[in-house]
Amino acid sequence: MLFASPPWPGVISALAGWCGSVPLSGGLLLGLFLAGAAGSTMHCVPMCGGFVLGQVADRMARVPAARLCEWQRVGRGALLPYHLGRLSTYAGLGALGGAAAGRLPWFGFASAGLLLLGAALFLAHVARVLPGLDRAPAGWTSAIARLAKRAGGGYPLGIVLGFLPCGFLYAALATTAASGNPLLGAFGMLGFGLGTVPALVAVGIAGQAAGRRWQRGIATAAPAVMLLNAALLTALALRGLVVDM
Fold this sequence. Notes:
Order of helices and strands: HHHHHHHHHH
């Protein structure tokens, strides 16, 4: 044979078979964590890197020159309270989404539809075909800006900025809503949020330029990871449809 057959049908079949033996919760948590880790290099760093660097600069300016050291730079660059605030907002949104979706009629079909929507949004994120998802009405954006100014920084600022319009976040929310369970929705969004933390911490500690160099290797693999994640969600959705039919 001159041309080998493409491996994708075998990959999808293997994923579908694997999903048949893995609980829906396990597949969701794994897929969301991997999506957060891979997509953060393509999306979160360009979108939120400025917020991170601004906070780091402000925190470092408050350190007396006599106390400046490597440990201070690392500790203040990590911005752990800020990331905990983001994770709190994500977990709350995931719980609300799971609770709301669980009340939908014909939940089995609705769950499969939400999983397919999440897969489609992750694919759109890789292809960069829906940039408008990261925009919001001017009133919403200005309200977040006012709240962020009052929050100052740290944990309160993380809570506020967790509501920024973000197509990447919408994909994760659609996926967690498919669980129909507020607890699983919260944990799913926590897993997604934890996946986004390392890249932003790297930017906060090493700076934007150094962070980009550190991320190059991960960024090259990110589209493949996102595609496999979309395939995983599609397999979970198809499994759910087969069970409910």
